[in-house]
Amino acid sequence: MKILKILFLSILTLVGVSLIWRWTSRKRSLPCPTWLANLLDSSWSDWLLGTQTTLDRIGLKPDQKVLEVGPGPGRLLIPAAKRVQPGGEVFGLDIQPGMLNRLNARAARAGVSNLIALLGDASQPQFPPESFDVVYLCTVLGEIPDREATIQQCYAALKPEGILSITEIFPDPHYQSRATVQRLAEAAGFRLQAMLGPWYLFTANFAKA
After folding, report:
1. DSSP sequence for the chain
2. Tell me, which fold does domain 31-208 have in CATH?
3. 161 — alpha (psi -120 to 50), left (phi > 0) or beta?
4. Could you give the angle at the alpha carbon of 199 between the alpha carbons of 197 and 200, nearest 5°?
5. Against a cut of 0.85, is the pTM above it?
6. Sign for the pseudo-dihedral over CA of 116, 122, 68, 159
7. pLDDT for the residue 13
8. Please, are residues 145 and 28 in contact by the beta-carbon 8 Å criterion?
9. From edge to edge, which strands make up the β-sheet containing 115-119?
């Protein structure tokens, strides 16, 4: 009985923290802290979060120029860099210098040379118009207070018929529903191309209209 009580209180605490974090993120940017990056640097996290499945759904191809918004330590971006070879190039835009340091270190250890890490706010212009074939976000959109401006910047940065790919995973505290993702993307001028996977781990691909 005591163990069950402790387990119940632990779950209740986690839910409470998740809800508070989610609500606070509506007012200010609260990205995943750098000290939690170790949780994303393992084969276990690759399996749990569906790294290869997500990359398959995004549909990266050789010779593409790709941007990930909020790459963190590079769980997706480093294997993405390998998928766009030969001839391709990937960029990671993050607001946390600590995450970018980890990303660069991991890329160097993996022998990845076609990856560029940049510090910046995704809701502000960071790239020339029509720079990328693909822009993607994974469990990041909900961390950004101005989601509308961010999606608009993604639209501007994509080439004509470029792809915006958004992946959401429940129970991430910043989880965005399918309906919310589609509404934000279509409001910026994108058209839905495909909605892949179950509601708790889905990838929505949109084409620049």
Report:
1. -HHHHHHHHHHHHHHHHHHHHHHHTTTS--PPPGGGGGGGSSHHHHHHHTHHHHHHHHT--TT-EEEEES-TTTTTHHHHHHHTTTT-EEEEEES-HHHHHHHHHHHHHTT--SEEEEE--TTS--S-TT-EEEEEEES-GGG-S-HHHHHHHHHHHEEEEEEEEEEEETT-TT---HHHHHHHHHHTTEEEEEEES-TTEEEEEEEE-
2. Rossmann fold (3.40.50)
3. left
4. 95
5. no
6. negative
7. 47
8. yes
9. 115-119, 89-94, 65-69, 132-138, 158-169, 201-208, 190-196
How many C-alpha atoms does 45 have within 13 Å on its Cβ side? Answer: 11
Span between the terminal Cα atoms of the chain, in Å: 58
- C-alpha 24 chain-centroid distance: 19
Over residues 21-79, the pLDDT tens digits come to 555 555 555 566 554 555 556 565 666 677 999 999 999 999 999 999 999 999 999 99
Copy the structure tokens of residue 121: 């706010």
Cβ neighbours for 78, distance < 8 A, ≥ 6 positions apart: 103, 106, 107, 110, 112, 115
Domain ranges of the chain: 31-208
**CB distance 164 to 155 below 8 Å:** yes
3-class secondary structure per residue, 113-131: CCEEEEECCCCCCCCCCCC
